[in-house]
């Protein structure tokens, strides 16, 4: 029997049938609304009237919470009684770059405790930037008998022991996705904790782990799990081992290889080539750690239907990339290291007409003497060849206003434009002018722009442009830029759809902070660090806007009056009570 | 935060100062002081050619000078940073291990192969010969006493460490580059701190 239907009768909150004659019984309305998948649509629907609000609440099975402190688990459970899948995001994004103190918060445990009582049949949990301890993972494994899918991205606080607990107790596990986390890799045989008859796995991603896994256990697991669609192994899996795995999994759609650096005999090479020939269903390929160039061609047969190629851990040269790309006619998304240089990007332009997303990461971000990497020329070359490009993340050491103007002229459909000129405050290297006109061109031309990251030498003019033209902008990241409060005021005043604003090392002060008073409740959050905001400014903000949480993180040895790091976010749960001593919660009371 | 307070104080002076440089060029001075990293940071051109008037009105436009190794910049996830550095270290199998060596005040850098040396004494002697200077006596408590130079290295985490504190093997696997610090900076690092 559906456990939820029983609880429905017991819950006092369920309102009586509306007295106004309704065209549909509640159950029918719920069925209809249950077909809605988009959370945006569901939010709209819930605003129509009380009946629709209730029907939507009762039919929602997945909830997305973009800031774990904006709401409490009790409030969530009260509104949505039938949740089976939860996505939670915790720390501010700048925690990825070590700007947030270690014990800041976003611990999943308090959520799990409430879920254990309110959603015992929870099936999926997807966490980003949360703190997850081994105890929490064990709690999760033991308290949710139907639990199926766990995804941890950029989380911290757990070790392979926690993974062992999940493997041991989650009998219905279909997905285990561990990505880019601060994991305490104690090695140990966590993979071997999966029972011998266990065969329901569809997604397994342990590319993050540096220790060895028990290969025999892995091989047996993979051959048992006929529904396995996604397999991403870590760099300790050799080519030979990979080959044995692939023989069992021709149905894979996403593959993350181990390292491609083992010496192969000719027979091994041929075998591997044949195995890859049978991987016709692959749409995603990643991994390729420590790749040895001569072996790259072994992958070619598997690339025919690839739409996403992630080479961001493979230090390829331009020519190697060019050769590989010739075999990837369907490519939509490409991530590379800047070792491919401009030549490699020219090859992208020539070989990937369907490309929609490009990310170029720096291989050596901290070495300023390096004259390699990519330049504006590479980006321009891509823009000429890939007219459908709409998402870019580009790390470079030089850029010009003219180049960016050309790029957006070629590709006016950018939704995400993230340009990182790595030397802070660097001007257009040919004209020596600020990069204002570059970003001006971006916002003027790309009317669909949702996300923008700016860099280089920028005056308030950039922000005037952003405020005036970027009417669809939702996320803005700013570092080492701007001239005065006016810049930030333009953004807050002009970008009507702004949801997330993160700023570091800019000359914006209290006037700028307070100009957004009315705006912050319509945003998810604001981050300002190493700017000119003072404690008094923050106190004023907290006083004027009691439904905002205003948190200040103090640095050791800093001036008492300076608000070193400020994090402001709307919340219906009130100020949080789990902040560490280094985080001051400013209350409006 | 110190940098910000200094910025606020500087603001008054700079507003009245007559300059010809372009926006961002004030940073040259601040970088010379705070840039502990190396002598060759690519600086924006101090263009005197054009935009003089523009420069004056933009004079307050000085983003706080990024110190050597600004925290969290460039914005790359720690996980990715660490993953990229590892391949170089697992070149333990390879027969050479070249690292750059810079010396404060020297016009260009040198490169040495760490694998050539059996331990610290050999390495330090080689550095002394290469750059024509003397390093003092090493002690755990006081670092290098008796000279105005201190040999330092940048480790995997991007921190600057004093050469000699950790076992040689550990040093070999975590050393990315060397720098011979001189003068007051060196004193701050090694001696009696």
Explain this structure:
The complex is a heterodimer of chains A (589) and B (193). In chain A, 32% of the residues lie in helices and 17% in strands. Chain A has a 21-stranded mixed sheet. In chain A, α9 (215-224) packs parallel to α10, α10 packs parallel to α11 (266-277) and α13 runs parallel beside α14 (376-385). In chain B, the strands form two sheets. Chain B has a five-stranded mixed sheet. In chain B, β1 (98-103) and β2 (110-113) form a beta hairpin. By secondary structure, chain B is of the alpha+beta class. At the A-B interface, loops of A face α1 and α4 of B. Chain A: Keywords: Auxin signaling pathway.
Compact summary:
The complex is a heterodimer of chains A (589) and B (193). By secondary structure, chain A is of the alpha/beta class. Chain A is 32% helix and 17% strand.
Number of helical regions of chain B: 7
Strand content of chain A: 15-25%
Work out the radius of gyration of chain B: 20 Å
Helix content of chain A: 25-40%
The counted number of beta strands of chain A is 23
Poorly predicted ranges of chain A: 3-12
Number of E-state strands of chain B: 7
- pLDDT < 50 runs, ≥5 residues of chain B: 1-14, 26-67, 86-93
Distance between the termini of chain A: 49 Å
| Major beta-sheet overview of chain A | 21 strands, mixed
Main β-sheet description of chain B: 5 strands, mixed
End-to-end Cα distance of chain B: 23 Å
Residues in β-strands, percent of chain B: 15-25%
Count of helical regions of chain A: 20
Assign a percent range to the helix content of chain B: 25-40%
Which of globular, elongated, flat, extended, rod-shaped describes the shape of chain B? Answer: globular
Secondary structure class of chain B reads: alpha+beta
Please state the overall shape of chain A, judged from the principal axes of the Cα atoms: globular
Organism (chain A): Hevea brasiliensis (Para rubber tree)
Region (Disordered) (chain A): 1-24
Domain F-box (chain A): 24-65
Keywords (chain A): Auxin signaling pathway
């Amino acid at each position: 029997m559906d456990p939820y239907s029983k609880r429905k009768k017991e819950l006092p909150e369920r309102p009586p049938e509306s007295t106004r004659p309704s065209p549909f019984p509640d159950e029918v309305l719920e069925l209809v609304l249950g077909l809605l998948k988009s959370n945006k649509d569901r939010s709209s629907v819930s605003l129509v009237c009380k009946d629709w609000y209730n029907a939507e609440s009762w039919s929602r099975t997945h909830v997305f919470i973009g800031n774990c402190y904006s709401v409490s688990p009790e409030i969530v459970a009260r509104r949505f009684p039938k949740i089976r899948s939860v996505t939670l995001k915790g720390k501010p994004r700048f925690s990825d770059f070590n700007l947030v103190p270690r014990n800041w918060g976003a611990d999943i445990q308090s959520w799990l405790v409430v879920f254990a009582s309110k959603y015992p049949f929870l099936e999926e949990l997807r966490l980003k930037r949360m703190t997850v301890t081994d105890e929490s993972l064990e709690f999760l494994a033991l308290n949710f008998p139907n639990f199926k899918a766990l995804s941890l991205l950029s989380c911290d606080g757990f070790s392979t022991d926690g993974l062992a607990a999940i493997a041991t107790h989650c009998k219905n596990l279909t997905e285990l996705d561990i990505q880019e986390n601060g994991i305490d890799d104690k090695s140990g045989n966590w993979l071997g904790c999966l029972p011998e008859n266990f065969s329901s796995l569809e997604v397994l991603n342990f590319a993050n782990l540096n220790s060895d896994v028990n290969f025999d256990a892995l091989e047996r697991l993979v051959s048992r799990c006929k529904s396995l669609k996604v397999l991403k192994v870590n760099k300790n899996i050799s080519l030979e081992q990979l080959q044995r795995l692939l023989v069992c999994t021709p149905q894979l759609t996403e593959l993350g290889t181990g390292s491609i650096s083992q010496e192969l005999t000719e027979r091994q090479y041929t075998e591997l080539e044949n195995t890859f020939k049978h991987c016709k269903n692959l749409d995603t390929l990643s991994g390729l750690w420590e790749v040895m160039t001569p072996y790259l061609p072994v992958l070619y047969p598997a690339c025919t239907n690839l739409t996403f190629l992630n080479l961001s851990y493979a230090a390829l040269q331009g020519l190697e990339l060019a050769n590989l790309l010739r075999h990837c006619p369907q490519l939509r998304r490409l991530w590379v290291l800047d070792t491919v240089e401009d030549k490699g990007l020219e090859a992208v332009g020539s070989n990937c007409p369907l490309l929609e997303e490009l990310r170029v990461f720096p291989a050596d971000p901290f070495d300023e003497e390096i004259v390699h990497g990519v330049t504006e020329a590479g980006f321009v070359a891509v823009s000429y060849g890939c007219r459908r490009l709409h998402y870019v993340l580009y790390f470079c050491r030089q850029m010009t206003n003219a180049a960016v103007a050309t790029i957006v002229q070629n590709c006016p459909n950018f939704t995400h434009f993230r340009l990182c000129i790595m030397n802070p405050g660097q001007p257009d290297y040919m004209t020596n002018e600020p990069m204002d006109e570059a970003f001006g061109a971006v916002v003027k031309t790309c009317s669909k722009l949702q996300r923008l990251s700016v860099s280089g030498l920028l005056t308030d003019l950039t922000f005037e442009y952003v405020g005036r033209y970027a009417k669809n902008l939702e996320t803005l990241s700013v570092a080492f830029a701007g001239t005065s409060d006016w810049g930030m005021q333009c953004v807050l005043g002009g970008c009507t759809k702004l949801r997330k604003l993160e700023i570091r090392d800019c000359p914006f002060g209290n006037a700028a902070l307070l100009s957004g008073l009315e705006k912050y409740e319509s945003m998810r959050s604001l981050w300002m660090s190493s700017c000119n905001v003072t404690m008094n400014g923050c106190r004023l903000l907290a006083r004027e806007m009691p439904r905002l949480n205003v948190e200040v993180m103090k640095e050791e040895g800093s001036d008492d009056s300076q608000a070193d790091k400020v994090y402001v976010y709307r919340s219906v749960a009130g100020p949080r009570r789990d902040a560490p001593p280094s985080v001051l919660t400013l209350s409006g009371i | 935060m110190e940098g910000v307070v200094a910025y606020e104080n500087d603001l008054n002076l700079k507003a009245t100062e007559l300059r010809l440089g372009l926006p961002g060029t004030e940073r040259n001075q601040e970088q010379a002081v705070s840039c502990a990293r190396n002598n060759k940071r690519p600086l924006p051109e101090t263009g005197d050619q054009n935009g003089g008037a523009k420069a004056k009105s933009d004079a307050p436009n000085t983003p706080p000078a990024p110190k050597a190794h600004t925290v969290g910049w460039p914005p790359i996830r720690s996980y990715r940073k660490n993953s990229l550095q590892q391949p170089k270290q697992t070149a333990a199998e390879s027969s050479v291990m070249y690292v750059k060596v810079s010396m404060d005040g020297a016009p260009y850098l040198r490169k040495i192969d760490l694998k050539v040396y059996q331990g610290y004494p050999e390495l330090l002697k080689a550095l002394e010969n290469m750059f024509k200077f003397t390093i003092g006596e090493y002690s755990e408590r006081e670092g290098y006493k008796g000279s105005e130079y201190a040999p330092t290295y940048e480790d995997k985490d991007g921190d600057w460490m004093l050469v000699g504190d950790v076992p040689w093997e550990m040093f070999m696997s975590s050393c990315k580059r060397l720098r011979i610090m001189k003068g007051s900076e060196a004193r701050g690092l090694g001696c009696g701190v």
